[in-house]
Design a protein that fits this description.
36% of the residues lie in helices and 16% in strands. The strands form six sheets. The chain has a six-stranded mixed sheet. It has a three-stranded antiparallel sheet with strand order 9-12-13. The longest helix is centred in the middle third of the chain and has 24 residues. It is globular and about 75 Å long. The model has no long low-confidence stretch (mean pLDDT 97). Bound molecules: glycine and manganese (II) ion (2 copies).
Length: 440
């Protein structure tokens, strides 16, 4: 099992503390998610919290106070409780997190209100991301309010709250060697699962059976499970971008679109492949497939350090639009079609996203209104153009009706790509995608 060391978590905290100067940063663990009644989903720590601590218990708060005389890293955690631990599992407890997770000080979570002010009162700013839990936001805001009220007498108080996203997410965007090892493992397992699924998928099988084959592979290969609900979409279901019902039977002449990725540790893979269930593309399917593949290969080529983030999306769009124009499915001036997004009935999503601790990973795509983020070594992203000609596709005004023979074809091809110092590396190349390899 590959894993990050406590040293790496500590180094991340140090880097963050350098950035916050005399401020205090507060991070909250993820809440429990209820499956039904009193049953909860398997707990998954908040990615920011995990990035800085490696600690995966709920009901926790991490505080970074670089200016504090004694304690720079403080954890509030669930205290040890043998009876509760019998039911819900091991807790590190207050002493445990000091020893193992390197906290300078730790307290039971119910002491938060009492103990937090000492870490805030000398801070010049509070760094905190307003989360979905309004009650917890209120706790932080009311501490701030009290400190501000005491400012005239004390002469110190945090004068502003800043969102932690703006300092932490740029850090998360560039992956370390160990993070890359984790991502490589997640993508390798994801690729193996896709290869097995393609062998397994035959006319007459149900989408959920293919899903089971994939998710079985995720787990048996040491992954945690799916990184997101697996999409197994046959025929026209593939025109629904996030189709997850997975309950239809595979028909002769169907394409099957599988968008599935595995979590390994806290890192994720995200792969899409589309192939003919009976081993042979129909002529129309083959034309669209080759177009999407061409767009994807050229988009991947565009992924280079120093290039703006949107370069590979723009490349993919241009290839797709040219192809649609060659087929007579779009008409007019290519620049106008692209500028006015007249291709959107066929291709309505962007060509990729950052990938890491979150499948749609943290980190901005733009630096300001005009400028895109610049790709740099250590960035990991997906490249996933597609074409979705839904049975009831409605072209934009002035564009031709789509002939029946193209309708119901949905194709996406998605790989995970690492930006390297000299170019890029496709992390998911172990799962094939050429026409010849998708046919048998
Ligand atoms: N599976 C979600 C995505 O590709 O973004
Ligand atoms: Mn994706
Ligand atoms: Mn995907």
């Amino acid at each position: 099992m590959i894993d990050l060391t406590q040293t790496e978590y500590r180094q991340r905290r140090e880097r963050l503390m350098e950035k916050i100067g005399n401020g205090t940063a507060i991070f909250r663990s993820a809440p429990h998610a209820v499956m039904h009644n009193d049953v909860e989903y398997v707990y998954r720590q908040d990615s920011d919290f995990f990035y800085l601590t490696g600690f995966n218990e709920p009901e926790a708060v991490a505080v970074l106070a670089p200016h504090h005389a004694e304690h720079r890293f403080i954890l509030f955690v669930q205290p040890k409780d043998p009876e509760k631990e019998t039911w819900t599992g091991y807790r590190w407890g207050v002493e445990g997190v000091k020893e193992y997770f390197g906290a300078d000080e730790a307290y039971p979570i119910h002491e938060l209100d009492e103990k937090l002010p000492q870490y805030l009162e000398k801070a010049d700013r509070i760094f905190y991301h307003l989360g979905r839990d309004r009650k917890f936001n209120d706790i932080i805001l009311s501490h701030w309010q009290r400190l501000i009220a005491g400012y005239p007498k004390r002469g110190t108080a945090p004068i502003a709250i800043e969102d932690t996203n703006f300092i932490l997410h740029p850090m998360r965007l560039v992956k370390s060697p160990t993070e890359l090892e984790m991502i490589r493992q997640a993508t390798a397992i994801s690729a193996t699962a896709h290869n097995r699924a393609r062998e397994f998928a035959k006319v007459g099988k149900y989408e959920y059976q293919i899903q089971a084959e994939i998710e079985h592979t995720f787990r048996i290969e040491g992954g945690i499970g799916p990184a997101y609900p697996s999409i197994v979409a046959s025929g026209k279901n593939a025109c629904i971008l996030h189709y997850i019902e997975n309950n239809c039977q595979l028909q002769d002449n169907d394409l099957l679109l599988i968008d599935a990725g595995c979590s390994y540790g806290y890192y994720n893979g995200d792969i899409t492949r589309t192939f003919p269930v009976n081993g042979k593309f129909t002529p129309e399917q083959k034309i669209i497939y080759e177009l999407v593949l061409d767009a994807q290969l050229k988009a991947i080529e565009a992924v280079q350090p120093g290039q703006p983030y949107n370069c590979f999306h723009d490349t993919a769009v241009r290839v797709l639009v040219e192809g649609l124009m060659d087929l007579g499915l779009l008409v007019g001036d290519i620049e106008e079609i692209i500028k006015e997004e007249k291709y959107k009935p066929f291709y309505m999503h962007r060509t990729g996203h950052w990938l890491g601790l979150d499948v749609h990973d943290a980190g901005g795509y733009k630096c300001n209104e005009e400028t895109w983020q610049t790709l740099q070594a250590g960035h990991v992203l997906t490249v996933e153009p597609g074409m979705y000609i839904s049975p009831d596709i409605k072209p934009v005004e002035g564009q031709p009706e789509v002939p029946e023979r193209w309708r119901g074809i949905g194709i996406r091809i998605e790989d995970d790509v690492l930006v390297t110092p000299t170019g890029h590396e496709v992390l998911t190349s172990a799962t094939p995608k050429s026409v010849a390899e998708m046919e048998y």
